[in-house]
Amino acid sequence: MIRLLDQPFDPGAELNRFCAGRTETGAVASFTGIARGEAGQATALELEAYPGFTEAQIDEIAQAAVTRFGLQDFLILHRVGRIAPGEAIVFVATASAHRRAAFEACDHLMDYLKSRAPFWKKEHGPGGERWVEPTARDLADAARWD
Amino acid sequence: MTRVLLFGRLSDIAGWRERRFDPTPARLSALKALIAKDDRGLGEALDGPGVRAAVDKALVRGDVSLAGAAEVAFLPPMSGG
Fold first, then answer.
1. What is the topology classification, in CATH, of domain A2-143?
2. Model pLDDT for residues A9-30, shown as the tens digit of each residue
3. 8 Å CB contact of A117 and B81
C-alpha cells in the first residue's frame, strides 16, 4: 500500500502495525528517511506531489518489486507539504519469507523514491528557497537496479 | 474545457498552478502555443529539458490529441522524495 501524508507520522507505530499478525512472513525490513537541518541551512522542505498520478506511478514500481523480489507485502508512506528538520519524510517496509528479499526490495524502492518518483522538492533556508533535483549519486544508486 | 496543472518550478515561473482552458485546444502543441502567447517565459519552460506532459494522469509523448481531455499536467524533472 502507498499513502501520501500531509501531516507528521510515527514510523515506529507504522512498523508495529505492519508487523502485527504475520505468522508466515519471517522477515520485515524497513527504512525511515528524516529531513536534515544541514546545520541551519535547511529550515524546511516542501514536497509537492500530483495526487492520483504520484501514487499510481509509485504503485507500478512497487508491484514490479513484489514480483521481482517475491515480496509478500509492502507499505510506502511519503510526506507531502512542508516538512521540518527531524520529521520523517518517507517510510518503506517490506515483508517476505526470508530476509534477503526484504532488504533488497526495501533498498530498491528507496532508490526509486529518491530519484524517480513524481515529487518536486523545494528547500527553504536562510538564503531563500531553491528547487532540489536528484544528485548524481541518487541517479547512480537508482541505475544499479536497471 | 480542460484543466491545466503546473508542478514544481513551472508554477513558480507561471504564478499559477491551475487554469481552465475553454474550449479545449485540439492538440497539446496548440495548448502550449496558447500558453506561450500569454506568457513567453512559461512557454519556453514547457519546452525545456526533461519537462513531461500527462493527459488525464497518463504520461504522453509527442503532440497528442486533447479531444475529451479533462486534465493536462506539465511535469518538470521529478526530484524524488
1. Aldehyde Oxidoreductase; domain 3 (3.90.1170)
2. 999 999 999 999 999 999 999 9
3. yes
